[in-house]
Design a protein that fits this description.
Layout: E1 2-6, H1 7-11, E2 14-17, H2 29-41, E3 50-58, E4 65-67, E5 70-79, H3 81-100, H4 106-118, E6 119-122, E7 125-128, E8 130-131, H5 134-145, H6 157-179, H7 182-199, E9 200-207, H8 211-219, H9 229-244, H10 248-271, H11 277-291, H12 301-308, H13 316-341, H14 354-370, H15 373-386, H16 391-411, H17 420-432, H18 438-452, H19 458-462, H20 476-490, H21 499-504, H22 507-510
Parallel strand pairs: 2-5, 2-8, 3-9
Antiparallel strand pairs: 1-9, 3-5, 4-5, 6-7
Length: 511
C-alpha cells in the first residue's frame, strides 16, 4: 500500500515502533534546521503541500491493540524513523508551550497533541504513539517525553542527539515567544501545528514482507540524511535475498538473519563508542580487507559487494550462501572491532584467561593512545578471528604492532599510509590462507620495522642529541604517559595520571 498522506493521518489510530535492528536516533542540528526551514517556507493560504520524504512500515501483528474501544494498528518503522522521531519531539515542544500559555484554546490544543501524537492514556497504562529501539526508548520516554531532569551528559550519541533536538526546538519556540504577545504567539503555534500535521506530506508505504523493504530501497531515493554504507549494504542484501530465494520461507529466514546481524552490529558499534557513519564505514572496510580484497584504495564497499555478490556473477543458490556467509563474518568482525576500540569492556577478548586478557587489554589501550589504528587493526581483527584459542600468538602480534606504530609513525614521523599495503595484504592472507604461519606474520612485521625505523636511523639518533627539542616531538605525551605508567606499575601503585586529561595539557608549561 502506498499513499501521499499527512502526519495527522499517519498517526490516526496507529502506534509505531522502531525495531531493534535499526540504528538509534542520528539526526543532527543541520537536519532539524532543514525541517524548520521547510516549515517556515510553507504558505498556509496555498493549496500546495510540502513533500518531505518516505516512511516505510511493516505490520507484524495482525490483531489491533484495543484502547478504550478504539482499535490501534501497530507498525514497525523500517524507514523514516528519524523523520517521525524529530516531528514527535517538535510536537511535544509545542505541547509544552501550549500548557504554559493562558489563552482560551491553548490547553485544548495541548491535549489534542498529546492524544494524537504523544501517548494515549488508559487504565492499563500509557500507550506511547512512538516507541524507539531498545537502546534509546527508555531515554526517549523518560527524559524527552516525560520530561524528567537529566543530570550530566548522555553517554550514547543517540541519546545526545535526542536531547539536542529537544533543546533546539525549545530554543526555537522560545525565541519566537519573546518577540510576540501571548495571543500572537498562540496564533503562531496554531499555524505551525497546522503546517506540521497537515501540510507536510510523506510517501507512506506499508509492506507485507520484510524482504520487500530492500527492493524499495534499491529502486527509490529518499530525502533527508543520506544512507550510510552500512545501511546501503543491508538494503542491497535484503533486495538480493528477495531475488535469489527459492521460497518465501528461505527469504524470510535469511532476511531475519540479516536483521539479527545488524542488531548485533549496531550494538557492538555502540559498545565501542563508534557510532558515526564514518565508524560504520570503517568497520565495513576493515571486514572487506580481511575477507575479500586488501586494496587500501577501496572505500566504496557497497559498490564492491554489488560486484562480488550478484546474480551476474553467481547462481541463485551461490548468491544465497554468499549473503549468509558475508553477514555471519561481518557480525563476527563487529565484535572484534568492538573489543579493539573498547578493550576495557567486561565483554572484551572473551575466552582468554585473565592474565593474557589483561596483557592484551593493556597493549590495545597503548595502540589506541598512539593512534594509527587504521594501519594495524585489520591485521589484529584477522588475527583475533583466526586465533580464538591461541592468546599467546595473538599477544605476540599485538606487541609487535605497537612497536611498529611507535617506531614508524610516532618516532620516525612516517606518513600514515607507510606500510599499509603490506599490513592489509597480510591481514587478508592470514584470514584466507592456511599456509601463512604466525611466525610468517611476526617476521613480516619485524621486516617492516627494520625497513622504516632501524635503530641506526637518523631520527632515532636525533632523539638522543643534547639540543633536540623534545617538546616538538609528537610522541612526547605518549612517551611521558607510558613512562609514568611503567613506574607506577613497578611499584604496584595506582595510576593517577589520566590520558584524556594529559591530551588537553601543554606539556611545556606543565612538565
Amino acid at each position: 500500500m502506498t499513499n501521499l498522506i499527512s502526519l495527522q493521518k499517519i498517526f490516526q489510530n496507529q502506534i509505531f515502533t522502531v525495531p531493534d535492528y535499526q540504528r538509534g536516533y542520528s539526526w543532527e542540528t543541520e537536519h532539524r534546521q532543514d525541517l524548520l526551514d521547510d516549515l517556515e517556507s510553507i504558505d498556509l493560504k496555498s493549496e500546495k503541500h510540502h513533500y518531505t520524504g518516505t516512511i516505510i512500515v511493516h505490520s507484524k501483528e495482525k490483531k489491533p491493540e484495543q484502547i478504550f474501544g478504539i482499535a490501534y494498528k501497530k507498525f514497525d518503522i523500517v524507514d523514516g524513523q528519524q523523520r517521525i522521531t524529530t516531528a514527535v519531539i517538535l510536537l511535544f515542544s509545542i505541547f509544552q508551550k501550549l500548557m504554559k500559555i493562558d489563552t482560551p484554546n491553548s490547553k485544548k490544543y495541548a491535549d489534542r497533541i498529546s492524544d494524537n501524537y504523544i501517548k494515549v492514556l488508559s487504565q492499563r497504562g500509557d500507550y506511547y504513539k512512538l516507541n524507539l529501539n531498545p537502546d534509546t526508548d527508555f531515554f526517549f520516554k523518560q527524559y524527552i517525553i516525560d520530561n524528567a531532569p537529566h543530570i550530566g551528559e548522555p553517554t550514547q550519541k543517540s541519546h545526545q542527539n535526542l536531547l539536542n533536538a529537544k533543546k533546539e526546538f525549545e530554543s526555537y519556540l522560545g525565541k519566537v515567544e519573546k518577540k510576540k504577545s501571548e495571543t500572537d504567539f498562540f496564533d503562531f503555534i496554531e499555524q505551525l501545528l497546522n503546517k506540521i500535521t497537515n501540510k507536510l506530506m510523506v510517501n507512506f508505504y506499508e509492506v507485507g514482507d520484510e524482504a520487500e523493504v530492500g527492493v524499495i530501497f534499491e529502486v527509490m531515493n529518499d530525502r533527508g540524511k543520506p544512507l550510510s554504507q552500512l545501511e546501503k549494504v543491508k538494503n542491497y542484501l535484503i533486495y538480493l535475498t528477495y531475488k535469489v530465494s527459492s521460497s518465501v520461507h528461505d527469504s524470510t529466514q535469511l532476511v531475519g538473519k540479516i536483521n539479527d546481524a545488524w542488531k548485533t552490529i549496531f550494538q557492538n558499534l555502540m559498545d565501542a563508542g563508534r557510532v558515526s557513519t564514518g565508524d560504520e564505514d570503517q568497520l565495513l572496510r576493515f571486514h572487506w580487507i580481511i575477507g575479500y580484497d586488501p586494496d587500501p584504495r577501496n572505500y566504496d564497499i557497497h559498490k564492491s559487494i554489488k560486484k562480488e555478490i550478484s546474480m551476474k556473477k553467481l547462481k541463485s543458490q551461490q548468491c544465497y550462501r554468499s549473503i549468509s556467509k558475508y553477514i555471519s563474518s561481518l557480525k563476527e568482525a563487529s565484535l572484534v572491532y568492538r573489543d579493539l576500540f573498547n578493550p576495557e569492556s567486561d565483554k572484551s577478548f572473551y575466552g582468554f584467561d585473565d592474565k593474557k586478557r589483561n596483557e592484551i587489554i593493556s597493549l590495545t589501550n597503548r595502540i589506541n593512545r598512539l593512534g594509527q589504528q587504521a594501519t594495524v587493526f585489520p591485521l589484529l581483527m584477522s588475527a583475533r578471528i583466526k586465533l580464538k584459542k591461541d592468546p599467546d600468538s595473538f599477544l605476540k602480534i599485538i606487541q609487535l604492532s605497537e612497536v611498529f606504530i611507535f617506531r614508524v609513525y610516532t618516532l620516525s614521523g612516517y606518513r600514515s599510509n607507510a606500510g599499509i599495503n603490506r599490513s592489509y595484504r597480510i591481514a587478508n592472507e592470514l584470514h584466507k590462507s592456511k599456509k601463512l604461519s604466525i611466525d610468517d606474520v611476526l617476521n613480516n612485521i619485524k621486516s617492516w620495522i627494520k625497513q622504516y625505523a632501524n635503530d641506526d636511523d637518523y631520527v632515532m639518533k636525533s632523539l638522543t642529541e643534547e639540543d633536540y627539542d623534545y617538546y616538538t616531538w609528537r610522541g612526547i605525551k605518549y612517551f611521558l604517559y607510558e613512562y609514568e605508567r611503567y613506574n607506577v606499575e613497578s611499584m604496584n601503585a595506582s595510576m593517577k595520571l589520566n590520558w584524556n586529561e594529559l591530551q588537553k595539557k601543554d606539556v611545556k608549561k606543565n612538565y
